[in-house]
Amino acid sequence: MHETTTKEMSPMTRQIAKFALTLVVLFVGGGCLWVISGGWGLSEPARVAFVMLVVAAGLWITEAVPLFVTSFSILYLSIVWLQPVIADDKVTNTLFLAPFFSDIILLFLGGFVLSAALHKFHLDEQMARWIIRRSGGSLPRLMFGVMAVTAFLSMWLSNTATAAMMLSLILPIVKEFPAGTPARKGLVLSIPFAANAGGLGTPIGSPPNAIAMRYMQELGNEPTFGTWMRVGVPLVILVVIIAWGVLRVVYRVRGNLENISCEPLRLTFSPGIVLVVLGTLATIIGWLTGGYHGFSPGTVSLIPLILFFGTGILNVRDLRNLSWDVLLVMGGGLCLCTAMSVSGLASWVVEQLPTDRFELYGVMVVFGVLACFMSSVMSNTATANLIMPIVLGLSITPLTPVLVGVAFACSLAMALPISTPPNAMAFASGELKTTDMLKPGLVLTVVGVALAYTVGYWWWDLIGLF
Question: Cβ(113)–Cβ(425) under 8 Å?
């Protein structure tokens, strides 16, 4: 009887513990506001944004409340607390609401719809079985193959779209493992980590790369596409191999696939399957050829939404089953970025860096570490947009390695679900907790940035990037 009572009380105990943890986070945030209220040269809006940043980061890391609740809290505080203290008529509610349905959110939504359509017609399972057959039944070989394909595709497609497609392939395999098997988490995490790494390989692999190229063009020192690949591809290979090793050790990914069927499914040919395949290919081609037609990835993502729901391939029930909570989490991260930007906090943080005390290498490391930290708690695209204009104003030459270093640091920050879009998509699978991603993600972030700023820096000099 005592045992039964304990089991019944444990959920309540957990809720009380979470509530207490939430109060601690809020107390720390309030304490930070009190500490900095008397100095540091921060304006009132910047102090408010600083507290919002501390509270949001604490709640996201501890999961004291659901992640999407934290996003709503950021939106609420931005409107009722931050906006009234900003003396600018252009800062309205719309500015903070817009991130929740921005281009990146549309891109996410399009990826989710593609995955839902592929799953409904078992096309994802068919492709997953093909991958299993090619791996020869070895679980480590399967994971490495999936990571290699993901990294390669992320060089040419949006790493967000690549993560969505590859997760739709691997999740049917993951579901076959018994609940609680560590390898389930390792396989799911292999997708975002490989997608993040693959984005380093080309100028179009990730938004921070494209932003860096734009600023290098202003400097008149824009590297060619091939030069960028010589800079990034070696790091992609190293990070993927290290990530594969880390995940194998942490989540005990070993042995062979057992009791998992890899025989091809007998799919019944239907107009629906043809439409899903054609719609998926059209979307991928649209993402790949954005430089030609000029439409943003989010706009292209409307194709599967209109096509699949308009033709009845997907219905209202499928719409309700999409991972809306993940979209809200990403919207909260973008909203926090907006708050930091309009409040002046982001600019203040960058301006406090002692760049006048360092040579080129030291400046690159300082800005890289800052970019890595900021990208861990907000959009890496927004981080690049905030930091790179400051870099451009420095008197140090050449600035090319600093810009490349910031772009790489933004993509290598992969410790939290909100750090990168692929991370958020993997978290949406329901297979992971924040701590599952935090442990190996921190290792890869530190190792990846260290490689970029040691061996990578030497390599960049060798191939003439300076």
Answer: no
CA distance 329 to 324: 9
Residue appearing with tokens 């990571």: 147
Per-residue pLDDT band at 4 (split at 50, 70, 90): very low
Give percent above pLDDT 70 in the chain: 81
Residue 315 · residue 347 · CB < 8 Å? no
Confidence of residue 59 (pLDDT cuts 50, 70, 90): confident
Q: What pLDDT was estimated at residue 13?
A: 64
What pLDDT sits at residue 55?
81
Short-list 363, 368, 365, 373, CA closest to 393:
363
More confident residue, 427 or 320: 320
**Residue 340 to residue 159: CA distance in whole angstroms:** 25
Q: Whose CA is closest to 45, among 75, 84, 90, 95?
A: 84
DSSP-derived secondary structure letter, 256: B
Residue-level pLDDT at 5:
36
Please, what's the b/e burial string for 181-213 (b: 16 or more CB within 10 A of its CB; e: otherwise)? eebbbbbbbbbbbbbbbbbbbbbbbbbbbbbbb
Pairwise CA distance, residues 435 & 184, whole Å: 15
Pick from 291-295, 393-397, 416-420: least confident: 393-397
In eight-state DSSP terms, residue 65 is: S
Statement: residue 272 has pLDDT above 50: yes
SS3 91: coil
Residue 439's Cβ-count burial label (10 Å; 0-12, 13-18, 19+) is: middle
The residue written with tokens 């939504």 in the block is 109
Q: Which residue has the tokens 């309540």?
A: 12
The angle subtended at Cα 69 by Cα 328 and Cα 170, nearest 5°, is: 50
- The rounded distance, in Å, linking the Cα atoms of 446 and 275 is 44
d(CA 293, CA 178): 46
383: its two tokens? 């981080």
